[in-house]
Amino acid sequence: METISGKTKFFLYEWTYAMLRNWGLSETSAHLINLLFLALIFGILLLLVQVIIRKVLVNFVGRAAMKTASKFDDYLVHNRTLNNIARLIPLYISIQLVPVILTGFPGWINPAKKLINVLLVIAWVMVIRSILRSFRDHLQTKKSFEGKPLDSYLQVVNIFMFFIAGVLIFSTFTGQSPWAFLTAMGAASAILMLIFKDTILGFVASIQVSTNDMVRVGDWIEMPKCGADGDVIEINLNTVKVQNWDKTITTIPTYYLITDSFKNWRGMQNAGGRRIKRAINIKISSIHYVSKEEITELKKIQLLSAYIEERQAEIDLYNEKHFPDRTMPVNGRNMTNIGLFRQYINKYVQQHPRIRKDMTLLVRQLSPSEYGLPIELYMFTTDTRWAVYEDIMADIFDHLLSAIKYFHLEVFEAPASDDIRGLKLSFKPELFAYPG
Predict the structure, then answer these.
(1) Dihedral in degrees, nearest 10, Cα atoms 248, 253, 256, 258
(2) Strand 220-223, strand 228-235: pairing
């Protein structure tokens, strides 16, 4: 029903208008007071309707929805969808009552209708927005949408919805076709693209990030350029929020994930193994061939006992055939303390319960440098949690640094202040004095 019937108009307006005129009021005053009176009456009526609707929709229907097995209706209640729907009904009633209230001011009827139509557009936007939020919350509980940038998609839909609402509001106020507004917007498209450059780039980047599964909420990413090193807590249309390990928040433009490089640690977490890549620098001057006495002593190490016996038998057989003169140790093959230490590390980590045996496991020498000869451990732990990973790595190196002295090896370290002071105390100037 677009308008109320003429008979109703006469009864509600003409009767009160005639009564006010009989009281001696002027025509303008009677129309104005009649307008205020009817506005008050209908205002109270709309308030009662609003209260009744809220009681029925928000309270009764909302409570019933919370008791159902489905979770989607719970999200509708949580996002205030019923409250937004409750605002629509009074607005639709108001647009029917406007011709009655403004009978004495016919020139105000169209502007008032336009204003209510604008409010209806806004109210519908709020309803649709709350429904879309409910869909987002519902999809976030699905495993197939886990980590997807649903907030980015929602923001894109909201932008299009606000644009359509703006076109409808423009058309309502001006009385022109929406196509006229779109034609005018086409001329200003270059300016709009400049204004919304970041939004457009973010939208395209969000699609690429989602399609290629580059980043999900909860991923640990590292992007030194932006100072980001932590977990992704939110992916929006324009920004990605990363909570760093020091609990600070770094905000990265979404399109940076496409244009710049970053490291995603999700592969490590999914694989279930976290890499150890750390070296012990051995002082080169402590490396030597092991003597028979040292071999006898090192055989007491259970992890090396079988290896030393097997290796020694192989070396003795080879030397007997090819190097009869063994007065010079360089002739022939010999075991070294660094080689035995490397074998010990290899066997130690091989039997370690918290090192992955199905992933790369290496104990290798790196190129010697001014800091000694690095013996690097390259392997993966069975636990990827940071604190547990650090404990496993520390336990391994605690043991190796303590065991190294039994191989008559020394760990390289730069001279400390105590070393310098010791040299000064042991220095005797008289030994270097000129005899004359």
Answers:
(1) 120
(2) antiparallel
CATH number for the region 148-153+170-269 comes to: 2.30.30.60
Model pTM? 0.56
272-288+336-436 has which fold?
Answer: Alpha-Beta Plaits (3.30.70)
CA distance 38 to 36: 6
Q: Which residues have CB under 8 Å from 171's CB, separation 6+?
A: 177, 178, 181
Report whether 98 contacts 109 (CB < 8 A).
yes
- Of 74-78, 149-153, 199-203, which has the strongest mean pLDDT? 74-78
Is the per-residue pLDDT at 80 higher than 90?
no
* Size of the chain, expressed as the number of residues it contains: 436
Amino acid (one-letter) located at 25: L
Q: Is 280 helix (H, G, I), strand (E, B) or coil?
A: strand
| 3-class DSSP state of 336 | strand
Distance (Å, whole) CA 116 – CA 97: 11
| 169 or 309, which is more confident | 309
For residue 244, the cross-strand partners are: 230
Task: Please tell me what DSSP assigns to residue 283.
Answer: P
**Rounded to an integer, what is the distance from CA 162 to the centroid of its chain?**
27
Copy the structure tokens of residue 435: 């005899």
Strands 274-282 and 228-235: unpaired
pLDDT band at 168 (very low <50, low <70, confident <90, very high): confident
For residue 221, give the H/E element and its range: strand 220-223
Kindly report, residue by residue over 13-68, the tens digit of the pLDDT.
Answer: 655 656 655 565 665 666 666 667 777 777 787 778 777 777 776 777 767 766 77
Identify the CA nearest to 121 among candidates 158, 86, 172: 172
pLDDT at 8: 43
Q: List CB contacts of 14: < 8 A, sequence separation 6 or more.
A: none
Domain boundaries, the chain: 6-141, 148-153+170-269, 272-288+336-436, 291-333
